[in-house]
Amino acid sequence: MKGMTKLQANLCLLCVTMCWSTEVIIFACIPGSVPGFATTCITSAIGSAILIASFYKRIAEAIRKSGRKLILACLFLSILNGAYNTMYIYGLKDFDVSTGAFTISMTVVVLPVILLSLRRRVELHTWLSAGMVLIGITLSLIGKVHIGQMTGFLLVLGGCLTRAVYIVFVNRFAREHDPLAVSALMTGMVAITSFGMWYFVEPRTFAAIEWNKQIIASLFIYSYFIVAFAQTINFFAQRRATAASSTVIYSLEIVFSIIWGLVLPASIIDPVPLTLSTAIGALFVVAGSLIELVDFKALLKKGAVTNEG
User: What is the pLDDT of residues 204-232, one digit of tens each?
Assistant: First the structure.
């Protein structure tokens, strides 16, 4: 993946987004009795174990090459990753699949503000993209988020802010270090820190979970497809993509989540009816993504040259 082009990177991010769109569904299959820290700890531990077992020589070489810088980068990312994932797990329990997906997409809206606070340049089309996504989110959430869900909403919002910072630094560290090593080490550190928080809220840890086939299957599916596979592909793609383009592609989780909610049986998730406001909101999100990803200036310039010829 070293010779990945920008288009290939964006296509990889789209594949990652398709995987991540199942997060809300998987979380819905895990009972509320399972602490959020437990879910983060277990899935991160399994995901890290898969990566280390498969690529331990490459990871060891990356540690020898980058040493302390790599470890500190992974530690910083692990704190951010564990924080936003835990806030999502707790916050999303208050929403259905569609509403949860739209709420998560607020990351696109807050990213330009985060970039400005870090003294990064923000292009006009990035602001326009964020504005379109905000309109889409607002349209979809009107009448669906009630005062009783405000705690969940604020948790997800906090997760979006944290995730925006995380994306900016993932984009940086993926260029400076081996993406596979960063993914494996960061995930292992997330497991360790999450276990500490899990022990603090529930000292019995694993013994406190009422294990069944649904919980075990959900945790293992999340560990492989979301943590080990999607997250690692994301790190490789971040070497060529920008933080802004990555985030708007992530916002397309909405489209996939709506599809899953419509086609999957009620035995897996509660059916999600496709309302007019949801459809219009999704269209605004897609439009916002196109504004960020499509180079309209280049297309117009190319068209002008063609006409002159």
Answer: 999 999 899 989 999 999 999 889 998 88
Calpha distance 44→247 (Å, rounded): 22
Q: At 213, list the tokens.
A: 């086939």
Q: Give 111's contacts (C-beta < 8 A, 6+ positions apart).
A: 126, 130, 164, 167, 168, 243, 244, 247
Q: What is the pLDDT of residue 63?
A: 92
Question: Cα–Cα distance between 206 and 109 in angstroms, integer?
Answer: 37
With beta carbons less than 8 A apart as the criterion, state whether 43 and 227 touch: yes
What residue spans of the chain are helical by DSSP H? Answer: 6-20, 23-29, 36-66, 68-91, 97-104, 106-117, 124-141, 150-176, 179-201, 213-221, 231-237, 243-250, 253-263, 276-293, 296-308
Own/partner long-range contacts of 58-62 (Cβ < 8 Å, ≥24 apart)? 58/178, 58/180, 58/181, 59/178, 59/180, 59/181, 59/184, 59/185, 61/178, 62/177, 62/178, 62/180, 62/181
Q: Return d(Cα 88, Cα 302) in angstroms, integer.
A: 43
